[in-house]
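call fold(seq) -> C-alpha coordinates
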Amino acid sequence: MSEEYTFPPYAEKVQEVLKQFDGTVMEEYLGHDIKPLWDQKGEGYTGFKYLYKAPKLEKIAFGVGWFREKLASYALMIWPEDDYALPVYSEYWAESAKGSFFIIDLYPLADCIRDLPYMEKYLAPLEEIYQKGLEWFPPANVRSENWFRAVASPYLITTEADATKENQDRMISLTLDYLKVYIDLWKKEGPSPQEYMKELNARKEAIRKTFQARDSIGDQMLSKTIGKELAHLSLITQF
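ret:
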Protein backbone atom coordinates (compact mmCIF):
# COMPACT_ATOMS: atom_id res chain seq x y z
CA MET A 1 0.00 0.00 0.00
CA SER A 2 1.38 3.39 -0.97
CA GLU A 3 1.94 5.94 1.80
CA GLU A 4 -0.77 8.53 2.36
CA TYR A 5 0.21 11.95 1.03
CA THR A 6 0.61 14.81 3.48
CA PHE A 7 2.03 18.32 3.08
CA PRO A 8 5.49 18.91 4.56
CA PRO A 9 5.90 20.87 7.84
CA TYR A 10 7.55 23.74 5.94
CA ALA A 11 5.89 26.67 7.70
CA GLU A 12 6.65 25.40 11.20
CA LYS A 13 10.29 24.61 10.40
CA VAL A 14 10.99 27.95 8.69
CA GLN A 15 9.17 30.09 11.25
CA GLU A 16 11.31 28.56 13.99
CA VAL A 17 14.53 29.41 12.12
CA LEU A 18 13.39 32.95 11.31
CA LYS A 19 13.23 33.69 15.04
CA GLN A 20 17.04 33.95 14.93
CA PHE A 21 16.72 37.26 13.09
CA ASP A 22 14.83 38.69 16.07
CA GLY A 23 12.61 40.57 13.64
CA THR A 24 9.42 42.51 14.25
CA VAL A 25 6.25 42.08 12.20
CA MET A 26 5.69 44.99 9.81
CA GLU A 27 2.20 46.48 9.55
CA GLU A 28 2.99 48.89 6.72
CA TYR A 29 5.22 48.75 3.66
CA LEU A 30 5.83 51.60 1.22
CA GLY A 31 2.81 53.39 2.63
CA HIS A 32 0.52 50.36 2.26
CA ASP A 33 -1.38 48.73 5.09
CA ILE A 34 -0.26 45.10 4.78
CA LYS A 35 -2.22 43.60 7.66
CA PRO A 36 -4.81 42.16 5.20
CA LEU A 37 -2.05 39.79 4.02
CA TRP A 38 -1.91 38.14 7.43
CA ASP A 39 -5.13 36.22 6.85
CA GLN A 40 -6.02 35.68 3.20
CA LYS A 41 -9.22 33.98 2.12
CA GLY A 42 -10.67 33.60 -1.35
CA GLU A 43 -12.42 31.16 -3.60
CA GLY A 44 -10.76 27.84 -2.76
CA TYR A 45 -7.78 29.61 -1.21
CA THR A 46 -6.40 30.32 2.24
CA GLY A 47 -3.01 31.76 3.08
CA PHE A 48 -0.89 34.22 4.98
CA LYS A 49 2.07 36.48 4.40
CA TYR A 50 4.18 38.31 6.96
CA LEU A 51 6.91 40.87 6.51
CA TYR A 52 9.54 41.16 9.22
CA LYS A 53 11.99 43.98 9.85
CA ALA A 54 15.34 42.94 11.27
CA PRO A 55 18.76 44.57 11.71
CA LYS A 56 20.69 44.93 8.42
CA LEU A 57 17.65 43.74 6.46
CA GLU A 58 15.08 45.69 4.49
CA LYS A 59 12.55 42.90 4.95
CA ILE A 60 11.93 39.20 5.33
CA ALA A 61 8.91 38.18 3.23
CA PHE A 62 7.40 34.86 4.26
CA GLY A 63 4.19 33.49 2.80
CA VAL A 64 2.25 30.24 2.62
CA GLY A 65 -0.89 29.52 0.62
CA TRP A 66 -3.17 26.56 -0.03
CA PHE A 67 -5.24 26.21 -3.19
CA ARG A 68 -8.32 24.05 -2.53
CA GLU A 69 -6.18 22.12 -0.04
CA LYS A 70 -4.57 20.33 -2.98
CA LEU A 71 -1.65 22.64 -3.80
CA ALA A 72 0.59 24.35 -1.27
CA SER A 73 2.74 27.36 -2.16
CA TYR A 74 5.69 28.34 0.04
CA ALA A 75 7.72 31.51 -0.57
CA LEU A 76 10.56 33.14 1.35
CA MET A 77 12.71 36.10 0.34
CA ILE A 78 15.18 38.09 2.42
CA TRP A 79 16.31 41.51 1.18
CA PRO A 80 19.30 43.34 2.70
CA GLU A 81 19.36 47.04 3.48
CA ASP A 82 21.27 49.27 1.09
CA ASP A 83 24.39 49.48 3.30
CA TYR A 84 24.93 45.73 3.26
CA ALA A 85 26.28 43.56 0.44
CA LEU A 86 24.43 40.41 1.49
CA PRO A 87 22.82 38.48 -1.36
CA VAL A 88 19.06 38.14 -1.65
CA TYR A 89 17.80 34.88 -0.18
CA SER A 90 15.10 33.40 -2.40
CA GLU A 91 13.06 30.24 -2.19
CA TYR A 92 9.85 29.05 -3.80
CA TRP A 93 8.25 25.64 -3.39
CA ALA A 94 4.98 24.46 -4.96
CA GLU A 95 3.86 21.15 -3.51
CA SER A 96 1.01 18.75 -4.25
CA ALA A 97 0.34 15.03 -4.43
CA LYS A 98 1.27 15.24 -8.11
CA GLY A 99 4.79 16.50 -7.45
CA SER A 100 7.03 19.32 -6.30
CA PHE A 101 8.52 22.38 -8.00
CA PHE A 102 11.40 23.77 -5.96
CA ILE A 103 13.80 26.71 -6.34
CA ILE A 104 16.37 27.92 -3.84
CA ASP A 105 19.25 30.38 -4.28
CA LEU A 106 21.15 33.36 -2.94
CA TYR A 107 21.01 36.02 -5.66
CA PRO A 108 24.35 37.85 -5.76
CA LEU A 109 24.35 41.64 -5.81
CA ALA A 110 27.76 41.73 -7.47
CA ASP A 111 28.94 40.57 -10.88
CA CYS A 112 30.78 37.56 -9.52
CA ILE A 113 33.28 37.17 -12.36
CA ARG A 114 34.34 40.80 -11.88
CA ASP A 115 34.20 40.50 -8.10
CA LEU A 116 35.51 37.05 -7.20
CA PRO A 117 36.01 37.99 -3.52
CA TYR A 118 32.25 38.60 -3.32
CA MET A 119 31.55 35.09 -4.58
CA GLU A 120 34.08 33.56 -2.18
CA LYS A 121 32.63 35.41 0.81
CA TYR A 122 28.90 35.18 0.22
CA LEU A 123 28.33 32.18 -2.04
CA ALA A 124 31.19 29.70 -1.64
CA PRO A 125 29.97 28.68 1.86
CA LEU A 126 27.13 26.92 0.01
CA GLU A 127 29.49 24.58 -1.85
CA GLU A 128 29.02 21.38 0.17
CA ILE A 129 25.27 21.90 0.53
CA TYR A 130 24.99 22.59 -3.19
CA GLN A 131 26.85 19.40 -4.08
CA LYS A 132 24.55 17.42 -1.80
CA GLY A 133 21.56 19.06 -3.47
CA LEU A 134 22.83 18.09 -6.92
CA GLU A 135 23.16 14.49 -5.80
CA TRP A 136 19.56 14.52 -4.62
CA PHE A 137 18.19 16.52 -7.53
CA PRO A 138 20.50 16.29 -10.58
CA PRO A 139 20.30 19.14 -13.10
CA ALA A 140 17.31 18.61 -15.38
CA ASN A 141 15.27 20.42 -17.96
CA VAL A 142 13.33 22.58 -15.51
CA ARG A 143 11.35 25.46 -16.94
CA SER A 144 12.98 28.87 -16.46
CA GLU A 145 13.15 32.18 -18.28
CA ASN A 146 16.40 33.67 -19.57
CA TRP A 147 16.05 36.73 -17.29
CA PHE A 148 15.76 34.41 -14.29
CA ARG A 149 18.95 32.61 -15.24
CA ALA A 150 20.67 36.02 -15.43
CA VAL A 151 19.66 36.70 -11.82
CA ALA A 152 20.71 33.33 -10.42
CA SER A 153 23.95 32.45 -8.67
CA PRO A 154 26.21 29.47 -9.44
CA TYR A 155 24.50 27.77 -6.48
CA LEU A 156 20.95 27.72 -7.76
CA ILE A 157 19.10 24.47 -7.11
CA THR A 158 15.85 23.95 -8.98
CA THR A 159 13.94 20.78 -9.61
CA GLU A 160 10.64 19.15 -10.44
CA ALA A 161 10.39 16.04 -8.28
CA ASP A 162 7.98 13.30 -7.34
CA ALA A 163 5.85 13.93 -4.27
CA THR A 164 7.51 11.57 -1.80
CA LYS A 165 8.32 11.93 1.88
CA GLU A 166 12.00 11.48 1.03
CA ASN A 167 11.95 14.38 -1.45
CA GLN A 168 10.03 16.56 1.00
CA ASP A 169 12.63 15.87 3.69
CA ARG A 170 15.44 16.70 1.27
CA MET A 171 13.86 20.01 0.26
CA ILE A 172 13.35 20.98 3.88
CA SER A 173 16.97 20.01 4.58
CA LEU A 174 18.19 22.27 1.74
CA THR A 175 15.95 25.07 2.99
CA LEU A 176 17.34 24.91 6.51
CA ASP A 177 20.95 24.55 5.32
CA TYR A 178 20.75 27.51 2.93
CA LEU A 179 19.09 29.55 5.68
CA LYS A 180 21.84 28.61 8.14
CA VAL A 181 24.51 29.86 5.73
CA TYR A 182 22.57 33.09 5.22
CA ILE A 183 22.11 33.65 8.94
CA ASP A 184 25.82 33.08 9.55
CA LEU A 185 26.65 35.65 6.87
CA TRP A 186 24.09 38.08 8.30
CA LYS A 187 25.48 37.82 11.82
CA LYS A 188 29.00 38.70 10.64
CA GLU A 189 28.04 41.33 8.09
CA GLY A 190 29.03 44.97 8.49
CA PRO A 191 28.23 47.95 6.29
CA SER A 192 30.18 48.32 3.06
CA PRO A 193 31.52 51.57 1.56
CA GLN A 194 28.86 53.63 -0.17
CA GLU A 195 30.79 53.75 -3.43
CA TYR A 196 31.06 49.95 -3.52
CA MET A 197 27.37 49.56 -2.74
CA LYS A 198 26.25 51.88 -5.52
CA GLU A 199 26.55 49.25 -8.26
CA LEU A 200 25.32 46.44 -6.01
CA ASN A 201 22.18 48.33 -5.07
CA ALA A 202 21.53 49.09 -8.73
CA ARG A 203 21.56 45.35 -9.45
CA LYS A 204 19.34 44.68 -6.44
CA GLU A 205 16.73 47.14 -7.69
CA ALA A 206 16.95 45.63 -11.17
CA ILE A 207 16.27 42.18 -9.67
CA ARG A 208 13.31 43.58 -7.75
CA LYS A 209 11.74 45.41 -10.69
CA THR A 210 12.24 42.48 -13.04
CA PHE A 211 10.47 40.08 -10.70
CA GLN A 212 7.64 42.53 -10.11
CA ALA A 213 7.16 42.98 -13.84
CA ARG A 214 7.49 39.33 -14.87
CA ASP A 215 6.08 37.21 -12.06
CA SER A 216 2.84 36.88 -13.99
CA ILE A 217 1.94 33.31 -13.00
CA GLY A 218 1.80 33.99 -9.27
CA ASP A 219 0.04 37.31 -9.79
CA GLN A 220 -2.62 35.73 -12.01
CA MET A 221 -3.27 32.81 -9.64
CA LEU A 222 -3.74 35.07 -6.64
CA SER A 223 -5.82 37.61 -8.58
CA LYS A 224 -8.36 34.89 -9.33
CA THR A 225 -8.64 33.86 -5.69
CA ILE A 226 -8.17 36.96 -3.50
CA GLY A 227 -8.68 39.76 -6.02
CA LYS A 228 -6.34 42.04 -7.93
CA GLU A 229 -5.78 44.56 -5.15
CA LEU A 230 -4.63 42.05 -2.54
CA ALA A 231 -2.68 40.06 -5.14
CA HIS A 232 -0.80 43.21 -6.17
CA LEU A 233 -0.06 43.96 -2.52
CA SER A 234 1.35 40.45 -2.15
CA LEU A 235 3.53 40.95 -5.21
CA ILE A 236 5.12 44.23 -4.13
CA THR A 237 5.73 42.99 -0.60
CA GLN A 238 7.45 39.85 -1.87
CA PHE A 239 9.86 41.75 -4.06
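The mean pLDDT is 92.
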